Every structure is written in C-alpha cells, then in structure tokens.
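Ops channel
N.P.: pipeline sanity check, posting one input/output pair.
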C-alpha cells in the first residue's frame, strides 16, 4: 500500500495540473470502489474549481469551490494518471488496463485526470470543508513527520508507558500519521533500534535518534519519488526509486550495509519486519 512519500509524490504531480482549474466533468464508471461513491458524486464535483490539493497522512484532499473537500485514498493499487495538454510536461506511460479506469476527471485546461484501480481498495468521499476537523478517518491521526508537531520530545510523551513493540507503535496512525511498514523498518535501522524493543524503553536517547531518522527517511523517499516495489507510479507514470536505497526492507539474507551481518526477517502483527540483529538493539 502506498505510504506517505508515495502519496505526497502523487500530490506533487497532480497539484500543478489541477490547482486553480475547473472540473468540467467527472465520470464514474462504476457504483463503488472499496465503498460506494458519494450520493450525486459527479453532479457535486462537476463545475467546481480546485482551490487546493493537499495531503494528510496517506489521504489526498481536494478543496473545492463548493465548500466541500474531496478525500481520496489510493488503497493498494490505485493510480492517477494525467493526459491531454499536460503530457507535454509529464510522461504518460501508465501500463494500466483501461478496464479499471473508474473515475475520469476533465479539466477546463483540457487535461484529463484518470483514476485506475484494479483491486478497488481505494475510495473517494466528500466532506464539508467547515467540518473537516471532524472527518472520521483523520480525527485520531497523530502528527505528520516533517511537521513542527513531531519531535523527539513528542515521542517521549507519546511512547511513555506503552508496552507494544516499537514497530507496532510507529505503525499506529494515532501515534504518527502516514508511516507504513517500509519506512518504519528503514527508520529503526538508521536509529539502531530493534523492532522488538518495547515502546516504553524508547523515550530519552533512543527517541533522540529515532525522530530525526524518521524525518530523514521520509524526506529522502519523497525526493526519490517514493518506492516502487509493486504497483506504485506517480501521476506522470514514472516509478519511484527509493527502493534502491533500502538498507534492510525486503533484504532478508543479505548483508547489512553497515556491519555485514545477515539481515533477518520476522513477522509482527501480520507484517514482515526486516532488521539487522547486530546494529539494532
């Protein structure tokens, strides 16, 4: 599933195409994705100006001139692509099957933004902008990495007394918004912290290492356009390449780039965890 860097890469690709433009028409080619589309979806979105395209955690948000916010989630295989005038600036090598083009947005610039999702785990919802603070899927989210609200001091408070393994705590979106399995594994390696260590043991010196490690991994992954290990591609059709910088993720049986110890894999909460048993304590 795309994590924060992949979703931010999509946002950065769509924003210059969509912001300030009017949606001439929206066509939905089925009744639902993971959930049913909003009532009168095409009617409520068509004719509206895109005020701003943002992101919160792994969600894309489109502020519309109608006073509603279009909230979009990519699920596992969702992908936006751009065609039309913007192809002069963006590659359009999607490799997608048009049979899975579920939403097609035509802009007044004659650009076309298409949402393709073979497995249909993504979704789109509309919510009043003035009530967006109460949008249920985001209400309990923790602070964003790279934000002024996230720091070692925050981790000291958030992890105090928690008995869950630190890997599980970092995947908890109420602790930190947007982190997923890939970047948690990489951040814990950089911070030299075992994924099995209890969260309550992190505050202090370990938190001082972990907070900047998380920020560095996320910032570098965004710069690299995310990680393409399965279906992810940006709105321009280009693949991310941060996967070429993985130190531990998906590298079971290979040597640790820091010490040469063989990287191990274990399963935590149904997810694969990759770590160096020598570097990470």
């Amino acid at each position: 599933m795309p994590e924060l860097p992949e979703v931010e890469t999509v946002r950065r690709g769509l924003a210059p195409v969509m912001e300030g433009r009017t949606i001439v028409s929206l066509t939905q080619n089925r009744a639902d994705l993971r959930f049913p589309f909003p009532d009168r979806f095409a009617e409520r979105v068509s004719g509206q100006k895109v005020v701003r395209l943002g992101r919160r955690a792994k969600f894309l948000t489109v502020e519309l001139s109608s006073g509603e916010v279009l909230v979009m989630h990519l699920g596992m295989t969702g992908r936006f692509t751009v065609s039309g005038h913007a192809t002069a600036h963006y590659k359009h090598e999607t490799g997608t099957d048009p049979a899975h083009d579920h939403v097609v947005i035509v802009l007044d610039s004659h650009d076309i933004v298409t949402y393709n999702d073979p497995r249909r785990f993504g979704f789109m919802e509309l919510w009043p902008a003035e009530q967006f603070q109460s949008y249920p899927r985001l209400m309990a989210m923790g602070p964003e990495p790279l934000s002024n609200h996230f720091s070692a001091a925050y981790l000291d408070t958030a992890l105090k007394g928690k008995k869950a393994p630190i890997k599980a705590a970092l995947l908890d979106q109420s602790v930190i918004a947007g982190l997923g399995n890939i970047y948690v594994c990489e951040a814990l390696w950089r911070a030299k912290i075992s994924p099995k260590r209890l969260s309550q043991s992190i505050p202090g010196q370990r938190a001082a290492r972990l907070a900047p490690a998380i920020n560095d991994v996320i910032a570098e992954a965004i710069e690299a356009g995310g990680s393409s290990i399965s279906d992810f591609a940006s709105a321009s059709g280009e693949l991310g390449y941060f996967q070429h910088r993985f130190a531990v993720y998906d590298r079971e049986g290979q040597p640790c780039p820091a010490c040469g110890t063989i990287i191990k894999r274990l399963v935590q909460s149904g997810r694969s965890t990759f770590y160096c048993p020598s570097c990470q304590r």
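N.P.: looks fine end to end. The first strand starts at residue 23 and ends at 28.
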